[in-house]
Amino acid sequence: MRPDRFLKHLTATAMTIPGVTRAEQVPDDERSKRPYLLAVEAGGKTTRWQVVAVSAPGDKYSEPEREPVTGPPPAAPVTAPAAVGSPDQVEAALLTALLAADDGEIAAVDPYSQRTPPGAIDHGATILFHDGSKIFLNHGR
């Protein structure tokens, strides 16, 4: 999956989460240099999520995107929280909603908040797709 399609899907999916009042792509500007950034407002707080991608083997972004590759769904690594607002709650809610809306493209999800020991980015996930591509969904501060 390519980052632009993922971000559009993530934005639409985020708006289905109870408690989310806004989810929109943050326009790229000269200061940010982050073309794939989502702002999610929930519980009176705004969290930002950067999308970074590794393309599928042989995929060239200069060419039209190939047909999606589907396969069995991954085991759900998280459950939806009762409320959203903090980064850990938004992370869980986004991943739960993404998996619920998945049409078979997602092969695995690795939530950062569940890693032991924690990594440099404490919230987000690595999302693996059946076509071999990866999305790194990183919480920004």
Structural write-up:
This protein is α+β, with helices and mostly antiparallel strands and 141 residues long. The two termini are 25 Å apart. The protein is globular and about 40 Å long. The protein has one domain (3-140). It has a 6-stranded antiparallel sheet with strand order 1-2-3-6-5-4, with helices on one face. The chain has helices at 3-14, 87-101, and strands at 20-25, 37-42, 45-54, 106-111, 124-129, 134-140. 19% of the residues lie in helices and 29% in strands. Helix 1 packs across helix 2. It has 2 helices and 6 strands. Residues 57-80 are annotated as: Disordered.
How would you describe this structure in keywords?
29% strand, 19% helix, six-stranded antiparallel β-sheet, 141 residues
The residue-averaged pLDDT reads: 91
Q: How much β-strand is present in the residues? A: 25-35%
Beta-strand segment tally: 6
Shape field: globular
DSSP helical segment count: 2
Which regions contain 5 or more consecutive residues with pLDDT less than 50?
none
Helix percent reads 10-25%
Largest sheet, strands/sense/barrel: 6 strands, antiparallel
How are the SSEs ordered, and which strands pair?
Blueprint (H helix, E strand, L loop, with lengths): L2 H12 L5 E6 L11 E6 L2 E10 L32 H15 L4 E6 L12 E6 L4 E7 L1
Antiparallel strand pairs: 1-2, 2-3, 3-6, 4-5, 5-6
Helix pairs in contact: 1-2
